[in-house]
Every structure is written in C-alpha cells, then in structure tokens.
Amino acid sequence: MSGRVEIWHRPTCSNSRGALEILREAGIEPVVVDYIAQPPSVERLRQAIADAGLSVRDAIRSKEPDYAARGLGDPSLSDDALLEAMVAAPILINRPFVFTDKGVRLCRPPETVRELLD
C-alpha cells in the first residue's frame, strides 16, 4: 500500500489494538496518533466522520460516563455541540479511525480495516 496510513489509537482498546495488528501484519507501519493526548480539531473530526460515512452520533462513545455527565444523549443537541464535546473530552471519540488513500473507516470490529488494504 502506498501513501500515508494513520490510526487514531488507544492502547487500552481491544478494537484499536486489533486494527493496528492487522495493519502491521499487512506490512504497514501506520502513523499512530494518541488522539487522547492529541485530540483532532473539530474540523478534522467532522471530516473524518463524514469520510467514514458516519453520523456524529455514530462516532460518539455513548457508554462513556462523560457522555451522560455532559448530557449528550439530549436529541436536541446539534452536531456542532457534540463535536465540541468530543474534542474537549476525546475519550468520547469512538475508535479506532484509520485513514488511508483508499478512505477512512471506524474499524469496529477491527477486521473493518481490511476494506482499506490493497
């Protein structure tokens, strides 16, 4: 595979570890981004979600305690409000997002990453 491959990774997440392992088994050493320590901008997150063909609600971790604590289940909240919350508390961003020349996927389950391989 040519071009840059990037993964928004969380080492404690089995899906994230699994997607990274599949990439490495395919001979790809991706740029590994600790999105908790280095959260994306609202615009980068918005673009990643759109490129993956998801809604903002599809990309938010609704089971995280922060989700309920911030009242993010409120259906009247705009995508912008949700994106701002996700960047402010990146633990709310579902993972792992993988970026390649072939596209972007939220790799849950991790085998989804195979859609991006040559």
UniProtKB/TrEMBL annotation:
It is an enzyme of class 1 (oxidoreductase). The keyword Oxidoreductase applies. Gene3D superfamilies: Glutaredoxin (3.40.30.10). It catalyses: [glutaredoxin]-dithiol + arsenate + glutathione + H(+) = glutathionyl-S-S-[glutaredoxin] + arsenite + H2O. Keywords: Arsenical resistance, Oxidoreductase. GO terms for molecular function: arsenate reductase (glutaredoxin) activity. GO terms for biological process: response to arsenic-containing substance. Its EC number is 1.20.4.1. Belongs to the ArsC family. NCBIfam families: arsC. This is Arsenate reductase. It comes from Thermomonas brevis.
